[in-house]
Write a structure and sequence with these properties.
heterotrimer; A alpha+beta (about 260); B alpha+beta (about 190); C alpha+beta (about 260); A: about 260 residues; 7 helices; B: five-stranded antiparallel β-sheet; Proteasome_alpha (chain C); Proteasome_alpha-type (chain C); proteasome (chain C); Proteasome alpha-type subunits domain-containing protein (chain C); Proteasome_asu_N (chain C)
């Protein structure tokens, strides 16, 4: 006789063997953890930026890569927000489009109140950092590295990075992806530290960025020689130049390269 | 693939569905209507893309009931995009959405795997597309007439079928213009020398 | 009112025997006593203006707005209970944002007003709620052009070229009818709007008021709904005062003539 009321009415162990709980609860058992982290599919390569005495210059090419396939050649990766800021985004393009919608929503919400305050680069950066960190904490990151550029509340140049991990840092020159290896060393020759920013004018900054875009095209296998460039100053606000081509490329020297060492012909 | 031309848009596709290297269906119709003159080309998982197309079709019907006007191709593309983007972990769907209305005179949107949207004058997708990037880029012209665009699509798909083992069968085309909806089918003996 | 005290006015969701919903009619009373609101639809723009009655000298000028942005290029102004207007605008913003997340483009003005109309109507159907104590004028620019609507406490709405509500609506409507809205530039419409509000205030002269004006125009505001800039507002106020004085002088002259007779 079974004296435990919990067992009453159940098959007896003596007759049927011990009850197999794993079969009874098979439906509720989770054999896989929930998967959320993805992999980037269509991607954009580097974003590069530099401060100068009156503002910032930022650039990104127009390629949307599908693995090594140069699939889309008209992707815009720079997004002006408000009247004094821009966000440059590299990494997954579907997430880029999502982030760009977030930024539009932010701008719409900011325009509810006509109180003379406008969205500036530091506010946008702080917002984005929170979004990126929140998503990585949910194990569902937005697969991007971004640079936020513009002017801060006091009208001084502002440049700051944030990426899929929520990592953030600021510097007078910034680059994402391949640009961190190829462009930063060149940009740092122009502006090494914060105090150098004062010495640099718009012309010098623009030329440095253009030179870097050319080097990136030479050496980054996921890049294009077609790009967009944005300059932000107090005087002219956001100046957006689209569809620029990397000019004056150097290739002619190839005719003198013969063999790979000793060959002369 | 889908192509904008003078009078509207043309969609085209081969008719092969495979499970591994077995051809499960050799006369598939991959050109799917989601609204009167908004169609899509499905590539990737047949089950996923059919499910997504059915859901979009429902949303567009609802849109019409609520708004009292037909949806634009852009709205259709946005719904496709939202579904493929938010379910990117679960789906394998590469889609092209193409639609005709008199306001835009036809639009083509490419929605690849991750769920981004790309508005394009013409779009190609699927396993066979890798073989025709060069040819299509070189031979595409803006504002082709109907005869030219049908031949463009036919030649492109014939090449994709020739080189890609996962593409084959017949070439189906759907032409969306002010005049209406027209379906074309080209059999292997008709397209092989095209 | 003969029906007061019969019990049919105590609740929504109960008709009176002659087919009226008294709660809705009382809500309209709240509107009729509010500051005058107007909306103008020009060839390629929208102008909103409102007479804001100052109930206390301690209130800060330029605050407690009665014109609000629903989203990007859609605005609203309302007469009646301020918090009810706040709530409606908040609902409008939710509609605007949820439409954007669903369709990745901005909601059209006619569809927005239809959604809001249904929302307001629902507040006339349940005895646990009261109707909205506002009539709102909602307008904006979308892909199909400019639109202007007026939404009443009953939930019904109509499209207008020029709309007016609140205490001074009658004189405002008369003035709106005289304007050639199809030809008027949006900039000039701002000045006319100020004049109409000033004129509508004439019957309510014992109270102080502040004027609020906003506009939407592709040329002037890049299609965004914004308050008019300070200098234009002052120009419009000046224009309104001058026009009003002109009319008064004419009236006085008429009176003088009468006396001579």
């Amino acid at each position: 006789m079974e004296h435990d009321p919990f067992r009453w009415g159940r098959p007896s162990d003596q007759a049927y063997g011990e009850y197999n709980n794993s079969i009874a609860h098979a439906g509720q058992q989770q054999s896989f953890p929930k998967m959320n982290t993805q992999q980037p599919i269509v991607t954009g390569t580097s974003v590069i930026a530099i401060k100068f005495k009156d503002g910032i210059v930022i650039a990104a090419d127009n390629l949307g890569s599908y693995g090594s396939l140069a699939r889309f050649t008209d992707v815009e990766r720079l997004f002006p927000v408000g009247d004094h800021a821009v966000v440059g985004i590299s990494g997954d393009i579907s997430d880029l489009q999502y982030v760009s919608r977030l930024l539009e929503d932010l701008e719409i919400e900011n325009n509810y109140d006509y109180d003379g305050h406008s969205l500036r680069a530091p506010h946008i950066h702080e917002y984005l950092q929170k979004v990126f960190y929140h998503r990585r904490s949910k194990m569902d990151p937005l697969w991007n590295s971004t640079i936020v550029g513009g002017l801060d509340d006091s009208g001084k140049p502002f440049l700051k990075y944030v990426d899929l991990l929520g990592v953030q840092y600021s510097a007078p020159t910034l680059a994402t992806g391949f640009g961190a290896y190829l462009a930063l060393p060149i940009l740092r020759k122009v502006v090494f530290e914060e105090k150098d920013v004062e010495k640099i004018d718009e012309e010098t900054a623009r030329n440095a960025i253009k030179e870097c875009m050319k080097v990136l095209f030479y050496r980054d296998a996921r890049s294009l020689d077609k790009y967009s460039l944005i300059t932000i100053t107090k005087k002219n606000g956001v100046v957006f130049e689209k569809g620029l081509k990397s000019e004056e490329q150097s290739w002619r020297f190839a005719k003198d390269i013969k063999g790979y060492g000793t060959q002369k012909v | 693939m889908a192509v904008k031309f003078k009078d509207g848009v043309v969609l085209g596709a081969d008719s092969r569905t495979t499970t591994g290297s077995y051809i499960a269906n050799r006369v598939t119709d991959k050109l799917t209507q989601v609204y009167d003159k908004i169609w899509c080309c499905r590539s990737g998982s047949a089950a996923d893309t059919q499910a997504v197309a059915d859901i979009v079709k429902y949303h567009l019907e609802l849109y019409t009931a609520q708004h009292g006007k037909p949806p634009s191709a852009k709205v259709a593309a946005s719904i496709f995009q939202e579904l493929t983007y938010t379910n990117k972990d679960a789906l394998s769907a590469g889609l092209i959405v193409a639609g005709f209305d008199e306001k835009t005179n036809g639009e083509v949107f490419s929605i690849p795997l991750g769920g981004s949207v790309h508005k394009q004058p013409f779009a190609i997708a699927g396993s066979g597309s890798a073989y025709i990037y060069g040819w299509t880029e070189k031979n595409f012209k803006e504002n082709m007439n109907k005869e030219e665009v049908v031949s463009f699509v036919k030649t492109a798909l014939a090449q994709a079928i020739k080189w890609d083992g996962s593409s084959g069968g017949v070439i189906r085309q759907v032409i969306l213009t002010k005049e209406g909806i027209e379906r074309l089918v080209f059999y292997p003996d008709e397209y092989e020398d095209a | 009112m003969t029906s007061v005290g019969t019990g049919y006015d105590l609740s929504n969701s109960v008709f009176s025997p002659d087919g009226r919903n008294f709660q809705v009619e009382y809500a309209s009373k709240a509107v009729e006593n509010g500051g005058t609101s107007i909306g103008l639809k020009t060839k390629n723009g929208i102008v909103f203006a409102v007479e804001k009655i100052i109930t206390s000298k301690l209130l800060v000028p330029g605050k407690n707005n009665r014109i609000q942005t629903i989203g990007r290029s859609i605005g609203a102004v309302y007469s009646g209970l301020l918090p009810d207007g706040r709530h409606l605008v908040s609902r409008g913003r939710d509609e605007f944002n949820s439409y954007r997340s669903q369709y990745k483009e901005d909601i059209t003005v006619p569809y927005l007003i239809d959604r809001l109309g249904n929302y307001v109507q629902a507040y006339t159907c349940y005895n646990s709620v009261r109707p909205f104590g506002i009539t709102s004028i909602i307008g904006g620019i979308d892909e199909d052009g400019t639109h202007l609507y007026m939404l009443e406490p009953s939930g019904s709405y109509w499209g207008y070229k020029g709309a007016a509500t609140g205490k001074g609506r009658q004189s405002a409507k008369n003035e709106l009818e005289k304007l050639n809205l199809d030809e008027l530039s949006t900039r000039d419409a701002v000045k006319e709007a100020a004049r109409i509000i000033y004129q509508a205030h004439e019957d309510n002269k014992d109270k102080d008021f502040e004027i609020e004006i906003s506009w939407i125009s592709k040329e002037e505001t890049k299609g965004l709904h914004q308050f008019v800039p300070e200098d234009l507002l002052n120009e419009a106020k000046q224009y309104a005062e001058d026009k009003l004085n002109e009319d008064e002088d004419e009236d006085e002259e008429d009176e003088d003539e009468n006396m001579e007779e």
